[in-house]
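Board notes (copied after class):
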Amino acid sequence: MTVRIGVVGGGLVAQAEHLPYLSSLRDRFALVALAEPSATVREALGPRYWIPALLGDYRALLDAEAVDAVVVRSPHGTHARVVLDALAAGVHVFVEKPMCITLADADAIVAARDSAEKVVQVGTMKRFDPAVEAMIEALPDSAAELRYASVAVGDPEFEPYFESGEIVRGSDIPSGLIEATRRGEAEQVAQAVGSDAPDVVRAFSESFLGSLLHDLNVVHGMLAKLDEPLPAAVVGGDWWNEDRAVYDALRLQNGGRVDAACIQLLDTFEYRETIQFMFADEVHMLEFPSPWLKQHPTIYRRSRRNGRAADIKLVKAYDEAFSRELRHFHDCIVDGTPCRTPPEGARLDIDVLTQMFLAAR
């Protein structure tokens, strides 16, 4: 079955990942509509991806009743409203992380999903990386011997990976819409953490929910495999460097720790991202390439002692997680496959990140 799909928002991730992959998965998806407020952007992307319906507002997309599903890639503060409106219209939803900003909206999305009996999948694509799958499969069934886990990300963002002008940007979005979108995001951040100050909005919405969430979602998947009670206790959080550096800490039931740090390195071209789980008798590690690099392998390495030797298992996974998560979305809609990244998991991530942010304050 081919799923008729529309995309809400034509920004960086949509252009770099979602639109190219949806266009290539023609046996699964018919890319029939793009809702994007910039005429410059939608008129450039429409011919590029053979999208027949180009609309200025997502409500027109839903009102047309021409889609079975939508991919939501609009600004963070708009996610909850678009997801809820799409479910009310009887449409399946793939929403890029963060699913929303507040726990109240997360609960509303879960309830609306159940009422509509539609699929809601959250775009935490690392959970579909074959190397991540290999590590989760290889982990023991208990966290009893887990001593320490760490996440470290150094991110130069997107500049090294795109030619000038490759990503289409529009300066023709109405100023009133921009201001309303910013105000809505700030109001939701205030509901979540008690302040709408610009630095708080950037730190919480962009750095915690926009960046650190990806790796926390992977850690949560691994802790679930280890049968560790979730959520783990939050014991620390911090942010600094003009909201471009964030840190958090969890305490596990056995007293072990999980540390995570995500640092923007905008003046470098160095990307580093690792997740490491250290047990009493083995070490598991993931090393990720920049998400903007296609067919660059994620590397999973497991080390165990074997007598006087180190028994090393190495997996280099080239299959693209952004494509695999969209294929999974199709399977959830068509075949009833249980969703791997449902709203309940997104709520857990948002809850823990909120506690971490409040610990930092």
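Comment from the instructor: The chain has a mean pLDDT of 96. The first strand starts at residue 3 and ends at 8.
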